[in-house]
Amino acid sequence: MQKKVVILGGGESGTGAAILAKSKGFDVFLSDRGQLNQKYIDVLDREQIPFEQGMHSESRVLESDLVIKSPGIPDTVALIVALKEKGIPVISEIEFASRYTNAKIIAITGSNGKTTTTLLTYHLLKNAGLNVGLAGNIGDSFAWQVAEKEFDYYVLEISSFQLDNIEKFHPQIAVLLNITPDHLDRYGYDFQNYINSKFNIVQNQTAEDHLIFFKDSEVIAAELSKHNIDSHQIKVSLAHKPAEGAFLHEGKLISNVANGSFEQVFDELPIKGPHNAINAMSAIAVAQLVGVSSEKISEGLKSFTNAPHRLELVEVINGVTYINDSKATNVDSVFYALGSFEKPIILIAGGVDKGNDYSQIEALVRNKVKGLVVLSKDSEKLERYFSGITPQIYITQDVQDAVNKAQQWSVSGDIVLLSPACASFDLFKNYEDRGEKFKTAVRNLTIHNN
């Protein structure tokens, strides 16, 4: 008798999981409480996979042998609780897909920097001619690729939400960039719950595997001391020089990994700032572990183009540089963004606060920020915290108004930085929408200036 698999959530990962489950002979049903994108409806129809939208038929879901759920569905919702009470396994798409591939898995997580590090790692491996796929929290569904393609390596960006529902997921190389308070609304406002989720990435690693981690993170160091981790540890640092690992010294990225030695002048690379030094060193260490030559690593680093909305240069207008860092949805990201510039900054921040602690950036704001524009429906917390710390604060709910005010405050040599520290859902569809609207608003200034 066919095993019944129910997929909860019909986005990219859910549709991909449905395709893989069908290809493996499962009796598949997909259920989404929202409305499916037409693109995915067409795929499910073509593959003859039954689905429902706008509801979950609870009785049908509770008859399943296995449930694969979207990362966006918390474990606390009533349906998931009911499934667990019945003893029905609930897993993530990355867990499911990993059961059906023999490819080496490189899994990258962290509160910040994981997209840049994932894209850069993928670029270094692909540029070196390796047969490599890109998936996880980015690009095409991991399960979909496992169903239809044959790769030797997968580079996966992995979120805490995806790690919450793994059992046997086993990356041969795990990268842990940092852990700072984020998504605390999902974790009962308990930072330790979030830390535990991130550390799931190493739970199935063996002595044959590798863990690359940021040595300077006090949170990671404290957590490592609590665990017996079997994998071989490789350290990345801005402050120390680990014997095996990567570090920044006199402007050079130096990586001594897998009996190889690599050096690169950081200023020659297209990505800037201390956080990107950490990201680059992590990617370099992965590349060395899988045998990429120093020449190919250097070539790949120089030809890399980062994803948009991450310290993205938009325009320079009358000597003022406009930077789109809309992906900075937590305070730690803003800390790194502010640390990336020496010139005076007009900071545009705000949105949906996820339990932010602004003390982390207080000194940087005091020393570098000449004006704060709060772009948000709920400005009170930011306004209250930074009143008296930054010389001027302006409140708005309109992105063009925010950019106009930043231009008014700025002089040649200044930086106007959109780095919100908050989620985007109060005024925008998502961080991409926020970033695109910011770029449009900046380009409107160039039209008026011409």
UniProtKB/TrEMBL annotation:
Q: Reaction(s) catalyzed by this protein?
A: UDP-N-acetyl-alpha-D-muramoyl-L-alanine + D-glutamate + ATP = UDP-N-acetyl-alpha-D-muramoyl-L-alanyl-D-glutamate + ADP + phosphate + H(+)
List the pathway annotation.
Cell wall biogenesis; peptidoglycan biosynthesis
Tell me the ranges covered by the Mur ligase C-terminal domain, including all copies.
309-422
Q: Which amino acids does the record list as binding ATP?
A: 110-116
What Pfam families does the entry give?
A: Mur_ligase_C, Mur_ligase_M, MurD-like_N
Kindly list the GO molecular function terms attached to this UniProt entry. Answer: UDP-N-acetylmuramoylalanine-D-glutamate ligase activity
Tell me the keywords, alphabetical order.
ATP-binding, Cell cycle, Cell division, Cell shape, Cell wall biogenesis/degradation, Cytoplasm, Ligase, Nucleotide-binding, Peptidoglycan synthesis
Q: What class of enzyme is it?
A: ligase
Q: Where in the cell is it found?
A: Cytoplasm
Name the family the entry cites. Belongs to the MurCDEF family.
Q: Which PANTHER family match?
A: UDP-N-ACETYLMURAMOYLALANINE--D-GLUTAMATE LIGASE
Task: List the protein's name.
Answer: UDP-N-acetylmuramoylalanine--D-glutamate ligase
The source organism is Dyadobacter chenhuakuii
Upper lineage is:
Bacteria, Pseudomonadati, Bacteroidota, Cytophagia, Cytophagales
